[in-house]
Design brief:
alpha/beta, Rossmann fold, 10 helices
Length: about 325
């Protein structure tokens, strides 16, 4: 059973203290709802993983842990078998004591693209909204954050994060909470807020931007990464039933329209720092997902289009500041 009390104690004497008015009740409710066979199975996997203190840990260049003396082949196979019980692994990769979790996404590539454009993360308190299994939380620790908190409602992602955290000596500088953005009070306590791959899943994108703004301190930095389409400042794609086989995609703006949205929500110093097409090398099927991936979602005869005929995924990263 995962206990949240250490996190409550961690934030009790911090600017995040007001969160304790709502958070324990929300997590107790989540725990009650999730008493199902699937999460019990995943929590059992975590219980059976060894708690390891790595002798060498690299979070700056990758998520890579080693131990001396090395694990035996049998021990590595046991860890691998347990981690494969938490499939599919979407975000990564992870290299843990000789077990290489080859995830669907090369999330390290995204991190390397955005890192040069960020204000220094050294000593910052950071929030990652819709963080998946928390891969980027570990990379944030590698960049020197004081505290990295991720939120994502998916029970599997929560369990994947806790599995990695146990294998990395339960580092108390990183925490993932099974929440959605709408459950956050206006904390106004984070120096940097990340929202990567979330905005197009929101029925009300402007409301999402206001929610992100409400988490930032004055002068805090928003890092926003999302799907876009080419066009002028008035151009927004509203897909039909599916986009690249995803059902819950609502609005895909042009980069210029997205800048206008951010300005409308009161952000300043808005900069587009990169625009890249998602390639079949960055998102692909691997032995760690056992399901379809980007190649299956594109027109087989024209990879510039999705299977539904929309423009293929194009991603932008913008950085903005709260006044």
């Amino acid at each position: 059973m995962i206990e949240f009390d250490p996190f409550y104690q961690l934030i009790a004497e911090s600017p995040l203290n007001p969160w304790l008015d709502t958070l324990p009740h929300q997590l107790a409710h989540w725990r009650q709802k999730r008493e199902r066979d699937d999460i019990k199975k995943w929590l059992n996997i975590i219980d059976n993983l060894p708690q390891v203190t790595p002798s060498r840990l690299d979070l700056l260049h990758r998520v890579h842990a080693e131990i001396t003396p090395e694990f035996s082949d049998h021990q590595r196979e046991e860890i691998k078998k347990l981690l494969r019980g938490l499939m599919p692994w979407r975000k990564g990769p992870f290299s843990l004591y000789g077990v290489n979790v080859d995830t669907e996404w090369r999330s390290d590539w995204k991190w390397q693209r955005i890192l040069p454009h960020l204000s220094s993360l050294e000593g910052r308190t950071v929030l990652d909204v819709g963080c998946g299994n928390g891969y980027h939380l570990w990379r944030m620790l590698g960049s020197g954050v004081r505290l990295a908190i991720g939120i994502d409602p998916m029970p599997l992602f929560f369990c994947q994060f806790e599995a990695v955290r146990k294998l990395l000596a339960a580092d108390q500088r990183a925490h993932l909470l099974p929440l959605v953005t709408e459950q956050l009070p206006a904390l106004k306590a984070f120096d940097t807020v990340f929202s990567m791959g979330v905005l197009y899943h929101r029925r009300s994108p402007l409301e999402h931007l206001y929610q992100l703004k409400d988490q930032l301190v004055s002068g805090g930095e928003l890092v926003l990464e999302t799907l876009v389409v080419t066009g002028d400042k008035h151009h927004v794609l509203v897909p039909g039933d599916r986009y690249a086989q995803m059902r819950n995609v609502y609005f895909i703006p042009s980069p210029q329209a997205l800048q206008s949205w951010l300005a409308k929500c009161g952000f300043i110093d808005i900069n587009t720092v990169n625009i890249v097409s998602t390639t079949l090398d960055e998102q692909r099927r691997t032995d760690w997902i056992n399901s379809a991936s980007l190649a299956d979602f594109l027109d087989p005869h024209d990879h510039s289009k999705t299977i539904e005929g929309y423009p293929a995924p194009l991603r932008v990263t913008l950085i903005a500041r709260k006044p």
